[in-house]
Write a structure and sequence with these properties.
Elements (H helix, E strand, L loop, with lengths): L2 H8 L26 E2 L6 E6 L8 E3 L2 E3 L8 E9 L11 E5 L4 E8 L3 E10 L5 E3 L4
Parallel strand pairs: 1-7
Antiparallel strand pairs: 2-5, 2-8, 3-4, 5-6, 6-9, 7-8
Length: 136
């Protein structure tokens, strides 16, 4: 058994256990994908398009846009664009809810079968709190 297999077994990764990739902090500032298209994610990682903000990064709440700096500990909504094989609580296209400060923001990334993602976030599956639907 390889060292990687031992780690996966230790953390029960194949059965949806703890992630090896920790995205609980947004300290990472520079993700450079220039010249590449993101086509696959690993483990329980999810890439979402932020759907509750305008082009300037202001977050919409009850029809009013609030500057992001005033909403650090707010809930966010995002549309799932890509997910790793252990992200089994949501599907591509789902709208998920998560805390704003528990992921790694990303912008201007080309995503396979989507195009250029203007504003998004990488999250661990354990950081999402649920899937929601539009109220028709």
């Amino acid at each position: 058994m390889s060292d990687i297999d031992k780690i996966f077994k230790q953390y029960n990764i194949e059965q949806g256990g703890r992630s090896l990739i920790d995205l609980s902090s947004s300290e990472r500032q520079c993700l450079d994908f220039e010249g590449y298209i993101l086509s696959k994610l690993f483990d329980d990682i999810i890439l979402v398009e932020l759907i509750d903000e305008d082009d300037k990064g202001n977050i919409q709440r009850n029809g009013i846009y609030v500057p992001t700096g005033n909403t650090i500990k707010t809930w966010r909504k995002g549309k799932v664009l890509l997910k790793g094989k252990n992200a089994d609580q949501c599907e591509i296209g789902d709208i998920v809810v998560f805390p704003h400060d528990k992921g790694s923001p990303v912008s201007n990334v080309k995503v396979k079968n989507y195009g250029t993602l203007k504003r998004g976030m990488f999250l661990n599956q354990e950081r999402i709190f649920g899937v929601c639907e539009y109220d028709k």
